[in-house]
From TrEMBL:
InterPro entries linked: DDR_Repair_Kinase (IPR050517), FRB_dom (IPR009076), Kinase-like_dom_sf (IPR011009), PI3/4_kinase_cat_dom (IPR000403)
PI3K/PI4K catalytic domain segment(s): 78-116
PROSITE patterns tied to this protein: PI3_4_KINASE_3
GO annotation, cellular component aspect: cytoplasm; nucleus; TORC1 complex; TORC2 complex
Pfam families: FRB_dom
Protein name per its UniProtKB record: PI3K/PI4K catalytic domain-containing protein
Gene3D superfamilies linked to this entry: Phosphatidylinositol 3-kinase Catalytic Subunit, Chain A, domain 4
Length: 116
């Protein structure tokens, strides 16, 4: 790897120009990755959360479905893909299948203060 070469060179010479060469390579790589991530529309659940991919027939109720004096609607499974909404904060749209056979969708937002 070229960046690694420049870092090794910097360790030997302590010449900041070598460090700048490595940094330039990493910066270009970051820009390419950022463009790809920005264009991402879907995430595969097994890459994001292997535990949720394998979770099935949970005794945990589907959020928002609890009603007193009635049987809970458990989570049967999670969808294999999570949608990424094209907006500034890029929230995720996730769905799960309830034990009642209905699909329930949820909006997942990261880095939010939910105490408000």
């Amino acid at each position: 790897n070229e960046a690694q070469h420049w870092l090794i060179q910097f360790k030997r010479t302590l010449c900041t120009a070598d460090l700048h060469q490595a940094w330039e390579i990493y910066q270009q790589l970051f820009k390419k990755i950022k463009v790809q991530i920005t264009n991402l529309k879907w995430l595969e659940l097994h890459h994001v959360s292997p535990a949720l991919t394998n979770a099935a027939d949970l005794s945990l109720a589907v959020p928002g479905t609890y009603k007193p004096h009635t049987a809970d609607i458990g989570i049967k499974s999670f969808a294999h893909y999570i949608g990424v909404i094209a907006s500034k904060q890029r929230p995720r749209r996730m769905s799960m299948l309830g034990a009642d056979g209905k699909r329930y969708e949820f909006l997942l937002k990261g880095h939010e203060d939910l105490r408000q």
